[in-house]
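Lecture 7 notes: from sequence to structure.
We start with the chain below.
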Amino acid sequence: MRKILIKTFVRDYENARAPSVRLGYGRLSGVVGLCANLLLCAAKTAVGILCGSIAIIADGVNNLSDAASSVVTLVGFQMAAAPGDKKHPYGHARIEYMTGLFISILIILIGAKLLLNSFDKVLHPSALDFTWLAVVIPAASVPVKIWLAFFNIGIGRTIDSGALKASGIDSRNDVAATCAVIAGLLVERFADLPADGYIGCLVALFILVSGVRLATETADPLLGKAPDPVLVAALERKIKECEGAIGMHDLVIHDYGPGRTLASVHVEVDSRDDFLKCHDVVDRLERETGEEFGLSLVVHMDPVDTKDPLTAEMRARLEALTETIAGVVGMHDLRIVKGYAYTNIIFDVVLSPECKTSKETVSALIDADIKSIDPNYFAVINFDMDYSNI
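Predicted structure tokens for the same chain:
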């Protein structure tokens, strides 16, 4: 069914990276979710009012929040597809993240309201006017919600959309909530226990927890979360395989929304190579990575002297030393500047964000080791933080 809908309503659906195709997927998901959830909400709310069940009404309102989420998804995808302008040169794709955050806040507010109503039902229980329709309607919604979960998660994976994946997970969680409502109705019918208010509280708490979790997930990209380790590893592999590239460091990835990723990296090249040859290496890397990974990469060239024996010896020694210091993940940009009275050993040390060793301690350890070679050697260290491999 999902494939049929995609082939019917999404033009050029196989080219999922294209902004227009991504918008088509987002529209389809929003319309399908809106129609399905409005029908479920209407049916459950009507049955809940008919038999006086706060739990069924809560489940119906939960579907209404899902319908509202679908509306926000539709609007969000439409706005996120807008091209860059003077005030927003990198486009508006982050609106998709803001959409997800808005949906999460809406879910939390609805969950809080339902929790208050359900708690009032616990304090003031009233008998249900039981009807098997109250069981049949929620039960019939379960396969619909299961299908919606697979539908949204599948599309979310296709276009790498956190908002749609979250919608799919929310639909999957709704199945558990609906099953709890059905169980509560049967308990109240056959065990004669006032379970409706308690089940309503459980459903409301479930909605609240879901909303908080979704808010955390959707806020992360807006705050600037660490890049995807899979993307980082793929970029490192691509760069290191490029002929003429000796090494790389200082990889920084900026996420401006789905399909709007900018990156910069320092690539080490042989300082004795022809400058134009090195420039061709950089141009090729920028072009090929953009085509392969769908991002804009800027490469900075760092010349490395591979023929100087002292530089090679010092590099090997420093690499071996930094491997033994807890929290230090590497070093780069080694330069040796010789003077009349002393020699500066200039380089960068890369620290993990979780490094517990102070910079002063790291500097002291390295400087002591360098001076053991020659008292006139002085370490000039610049510290970098590595957020690419968290």
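Points to note: The first helix runs from residue 2 to 9. The chain has three domains: 2-223, 226-305, 308-390.
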